[in-house]
Structure formats: structure tokens, C-alpha cells
Amino acid sequence: MKLKKIHHIAIICSDYEKSKDFYVRILGLTPKSETYRNERDSYKLDLEVNGQYQIELFSFPNPPKRPSYPEAAGLRHIAFEVENIEEAVHHLTEQQIEVEPIRIDTHTNKKFTFFSDPDGLPIELYEV
């Protein structure tokens, strides 16, 4: 088997409109398609990051809470690459998003930080 790249990441949210606003307006992801599935009472929003389809945002009635933050088994966090982390952090704080202090990756000497989506999913910004 030869994997080529990650095709997408699926995220289940508890408040679809709030999460849609967060990922589209605040993070600037581009909606590709939006589908409502009546039989599941569920939305699915396909989002692009810099022209590449990468995120599926789902809503389901009463999804269970994440067991712990951030060390639960499974997906730990998603990370977005940015060119200027200070500008990105400034944008987020202007939107009243709480952002951890910027740190330096001791292995790469690159800057990074974390914040959370409306459901507490950890999101990393990593400067390249």
C-alpha cells in the first residue's frame, strides 16, 4: 500500500452554525459544498484550506463530549501551517478566541501555538 496524502479530516460539532461560522469566518476556510441529510438530521460541510479539500464538518444530534483535553486516545489535534504566527494570533484574539502563548518547537526551532474550536477541539498553528 502506498499512501499519497491525507484526503480529509472529519470533525463532529455540537452547534453547527457556531462551528460553521468559526471555520469559515474566523479561520477563513472556503465552503466547497453543504449537504443536509434529513434521515440523519445532520449537516455535512466540505471545506477547503488554501484551495485543497481537507475538512468535513458534521453535525449530529447530541454528540458525546470529548473525554479529556487533549490527551484522550485518538486524534490529538489538527494543525494549520501559517507564514506569520503573530499575525494569525492577532486575528484570532481580535475575534475573542483565546490563544496559548507562542512557543518554539525544540526540534525544528519553529514557532507554534494552540487554541480551540467551539467544541474544544485543539487546533495548532505552526509557522513555516
Automatic annotation (TrEMBL):
Coiled coil: none annotated. InterPro entries: Fosfomycin_Res_Enzymes, Glyas_Bleomycin-R_OHBP_Dase, Glyas_Fos-R_dOase_dom, VOC_core, YwkD-like_dom. CDD domains: VOC_Bs_YwkD_like. The keyword Metal-binding applies. One of its GO terms (molecular function) is metal ion binding. It comes from the Bacteria. Keywords: Metal-binding. Residues 5-128 form the VOC domain. The keyword Metal-binding applies. Signal peptide: none annotated. This is VOC family protein. It comes from Neobacillus rhizophilus.
